[in-house]
Amino acid sequence: MKVLVCISNVPDTTTKVKFAENNTKLDPAGVQWVINPWDELALTRALELKDNSSTGVKSVTVAHVGPATAEPTIRKALAIGADDAIRVNLEATDAYQVAAQIAEVVKTEQYDIILCGIESSDFNGSTVGSMIAEFIECSSVSAVSGINFDNGQSVITREIDGGKETLSVPTPFVAIVQKGIAKEPRIAAMRGIMQARTKQIKVVEPIAVDALTEVVSFEPPQPRAKCVFVDAENPNQLVDLLQNEAKVI
Amino acid sequence: MSVLVFTENWEGKFKKLSFELVSYATKVAEMLGTTATALSIGNVADEELSKLGNYGAKKIVNLNSEVLNILDSQAYTAAIAEIAKKEGATVIVIANNNMGKSIAPRLSVKLKAAVGSGVSKLPVSTEPFVVYKKAFSGNAFANVALKTEVKILTLMQNSFDLAETANEATIEAGSVNVDGSMVKTVVTDVQKQTGKLLLTDAEIVVAGGRGMKSADNWAPLEELANILGGATACSRPVSDEGWRPHEEHTGQTGKIVAPNLYIAIGISGATQHLAGVSASKFIVAINSDKDAPIFEAAQYGIVGDAAKVLPKLVEAVKEAKAK
After folding, report:
1. Which of A220, B67, B215, B290 places its Cα 20 to 30 Å from the Cα of B271?
2. Is B135 found in the same domain as B26?
C-alpha cells in the first residue's frame, strides 16, 4: 500500500505574525517555517505503519502545494523518513485550491491511504483532508486518533462528541488525524538528513482551479483588558468579581 | 432562498449547541431577508424537534433514515446536499465540531460552495459575503470573502448567544436518495463517556498545569470544578506526564474550548496552550510566577502557589454559593 501524507508549511506557533500588502498577506520577514504540527504527527504514524511489515504499507510520500520556498520544510519531512515528495508548484490562496491539487496527485499516482492533519495552524480551517476525499469520491474519517491494519483491513479510532468509535473503511481513504495518532513527532537523525539530500522532490505544475474564498484583510486579535490582580490571601474578592462583574458563576 | 442549519442530535436529544446553531442561522437569514430551515438527521421525537422552532427555525425537516445511523461522511454529505438543493439554501450552517468538520468540507466540494470555517460572529457583510474568523491559531483574525452563490458556515461551539423567539415551526418528513450501498464505514465498537460533563460543552472549565506539582494534588481542583458545575482540563505537560487523561488536554494540539469562564491553575500560558483557550469569555489565572504569560490573557489573576490558593478559593466559592 502507498501512503500519501499532506503537509502544510506554516509559521511556528510562537512566531509573532505580521502582515503586509495592506494587511492582506502574511509578512514573511522573520517567520520561522515548520511542518504543520498535526501533519508531522500524521507523517510519524505513516512511518510507524511502514516500519511494521504486517500493515502492508510499502511507501510513504509527502505532498505539498506551494512555491519552491517551501522546499526546506519538505526536505525536513524527507529527513524524518518519507521516501519521496511531490510539490505542486502553486501559491494557493485557499483550501479548495489546495485540495483540488492534491486530489489530482492522488488520481495520477494512485495512493491507498491519504493522511492529513486535522487543521493547519495558519488558517485553522480543518477542511483540506475531507475536501480531497470528496474530490476523489472516497471515504474520509475525521478526528482520527488511531490507525492500524488487521489482515489488510483498516482499524481506525475516531473521536466523537463524548467518546470514541472504532471503525473500518475500505481503501482508498482519507484519514484526518489529531492528537493521539502518534506519541511524539519523529525527529530527523543525522543519517536521515544526509539521505534527504538525495531523495527526490518531484515538482508538478498545477491544474487550473479557482479559489472559492479570498482573504480581505487580517487583523490582530482584540487586546484584552489588563489583568486585575486579587490578593492570594483573599480569594473572596475573586469570587465577588466573577459573580458581580463578569457574572459567570 | 433559505438558510439551512444542520442540527446533530445525541440519542434523540438536542443540546445547547443545537440551539446556538439555530439562533445563529435565524440571524443570518434575517440579514439575507429570508428564513431558516433546520435539518435533523436521525430518530428524534416531534416534541424535541419543535424546540428548534423556539430559536427561530420556520421549518424543520426531519430526516429519519436508517442508512444514516452511522456517521459516514460521504453518505451524510450526499444527504445534506440533496436537502440543501430542495430547500434552495444559499447558506448552510453546521457546527464546527467533530461531526461538522467531517461533513462541511465535503459539502463544499459537492456543492462548489465556499466554507467559512470556525466562525464565532455573524457575517461582517452579505454583499459581498464576508466572515470574520480566527487565523494563525488565535494570533490573528481574518476577514474572508466567500465568493460562491452557496456558502457554508461552521459555527464555533459556545460562541453565539441563544435567541429565543415566539415562533411556530412546521415539521416535515424529509427523504433523500441515499441507499445503504453508499455507506462504507463499518463501526465495530463505540466507547461513550457517560455521566460526565463534556469538556467542549462546559460553560466553566477548571484547568491545571505543571504548577499542580503531581498527579496526587487534583482533589481540590476537581472539587472546585464540581461546585462550579464545570469540567476539568489540563495543559499538555500534565497529560504527557500521565497525571490526567489525554481527553482533558486543552490547547492547540488538544481540545479547543471556548467556555464562559476558564480557570487556569499553575499553567504558565505558552502560546500553544493559549491557542486552544483564548476564545474563552473570561480567563482567571492562578500562578506563582507574576510574569507568566497567562496573566496577559487573563482578566483576573492571583499570584500564588496553587496548593495554597486552591483550598481557600474552594471555601470562598462554597461560601458565595451558600448565600
Report:
1. B215
2. yes
C-alpha cell at A34: 515548520
pLDDT at B8: 95
> With bands split at pLDDT 50, 70 and 90, how would you rate the model's confidence at A85?
very high
- Range 283-302 of B in CB contact (< 8 A) with A: 284-285, 295-302
For helices A37-51 and A71-80, the axis angle rounded to 10 degrees is 30
| B163 and B113, same domain (yes or no) | yes
Q: How many domains does chain B have?
A: 2
**Residue A14's pLDDT band (cuts 50, 70, 90):** confident
The CA distance from B113 to the nearest CA of chain A, in Å, is: 7
Q: Are residues B117 and B166 in the same domain?
A: yes
Residues of B (48-107) whose Cβ lies below 8 Å from A: 71-74, 77, 96-99, 101-107
Q: Is residue B191 part of a domain?
A: no
Chain segment A135-183, per-residue pLDDT in tens? 999 999 999 999 999 999 999 999 998 889 999 999 999 999 998 899 8
CB-CB neighbors (< 8 A) of B105 in chain A = 95, 99, 126-131, 134
Distance CA A158, CA A167 (A): 8
CATH 3.40.50.620 fits A2-220, yes or no: yes
* Grid cell for residue B317: 466559592
- Strands B282-287 and B300-303 come out as parallel
pTM for the predicted model, two decimal places: 0.95
Q: Mean per-residue pLDDT for A211-226?
A: 92
B135/A212 Cα distance (integer angstroms): 17
Domain range for B96: 2-182
Q: How far apart are CA A106 and CA A113, in angstroms?
A: 10
In a mutational test of the A interface, the residue from B13, B16, B111, B139 whose CB has the highest number of chain A CBs within 10 Å is B139
Nearest CA in chain A to B190: A165
- The CATH number of residue B9's host domain is 3.40.50.620
Give the percent of chain A with pLDDT over 70: 100
Query: pLDDT-derived band of residue B138, with 50, 70 and 90 as boundaries?
Result: confident
Query: In which residue are the cell numbers 494557493 written?
Result: A92
What is the DSSP pairing of strand A153-160 with strand A139-150?
A: antiparallel
| pLDDT bracket for residue A196 (50, 70, 90) | very high
**A154/B97 Cα distance (integer angstroms):** 24
